[in-house]
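dude i think i finally got it to work??
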Amino acid sequence: AKSKEVKKAEEIDRVMDFFRLTQPDVYEKAKRLRETDPAKFESLIQPAIHTVNALEEIRKSDQDYYNLKIEDYRLTFQAQSLAPQLRRADISPGERDKILTDLNSIVSRQFDVGQQIRQKEIASIEDKIKKLQAQLEERDKTKDKIIKHRLEELTK
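look at this
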């Protein structure tokens, strides 16, 4: 069994990797805070732990779905980083057009990734329904045996 310290270090490594993949600016900030302000580092890392742990479970069962989720987080961060630049007072019309073009491309890609995520989720639900339907049919076929077994359990 791993010690709490080892588990915590592994968790922090996973969060840092998540930041590196999806939010490079946050990753750089976290690296600095890790050295200069451990309390702020902890407050930056802590909220992401649940998300990263959920993503880790996804990665174990479906690498493609995991990759889509990471891409969605990455694109969300890019869009959120780019959008405020449009509100700058000193932005030139040419710069504004370029940012809008870039933002449109990011949001379009994010939409496509979101659709792929939903397709994966639908396929997963459909698969689960098929398995449950098969279980239901099997239980119908063996109803008498199941009831007899349950009665034996209850009367022992």
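DSSP finds six helices and no strands in the chain.
im so relieved honestly
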